[in-house]
Design brief:
- The chain has 268 residues and is mostly helical.
Length: 268
Amino acid sequence: MFGGRHSMKVVGLCYVAAWLLLASSVAAQAQASRAKTAASYFARGSEFQEHGEFDRAIADYDIAIAFDPRFERAYYARARARLARGEVESALVDFNRAIELDPRHAAVYNDRGYALSEIGDQVAALADFNRALELDPRFARAYYNRAFVRIQQRDYKAAIADYDRAIGINKKYAAAYNNRGYVRVAMGDQAGALSDFNRAIKLDPRYASAYGNRGNLRFARGDFDGAIAAATSMSSITSPSALSEVVGWFRALSTRTVFTFGTGRPSF
């Protein structure tokens, strides 16, 4: 009798174990199916975002996250789409969640730093750029963005150092040359600034800010003949940026007013 009861218990336990294994398998299959569906919506959302269709991209990211609430890349992508639409606060919520899910994704810290900079929280932005660079010391855009915060803090030497690092990593970084030129103007290094503006224009012949800064610097240095000669030689260039500089030079010469130097904004 005892042996029969024991056998029944063993059989019962086997049934329970089999049921648990089946339930676990079904759950795993369901989870895999949800993850696959989430990935499909994420992929389509990424295509929409690449073509500037941010509303449709966000709608797909919403669905991807509904299927997989731990889909870090979907939160990050949705945050960037929201930033592109100017929805900074909503983007910050998504950046925060993405960092919770993956605290070692340097690009998320950089982009959250950009968003924080946009709302004026330069201290928090600086902390995020620092963290991004701890995770990826060759992250040129993070150096570029951190330099912008340094400019706001009037820490020009640190800003120059960051632009140097960004350019050292990416020697074709036109915006970094332009912004370093701006800082060199502020530090009284006009020759260095002119070299940087020239380099930025060489890399990007349609870079309006660099043309404006270079024209302003030439006027500030009293190089009126050089400005006029350069404007004349450039009069056949159809680039809107170049034409803007031509118009600006002549306007400065006629009104004796000086341009305002400008920097490129942080980027994400």
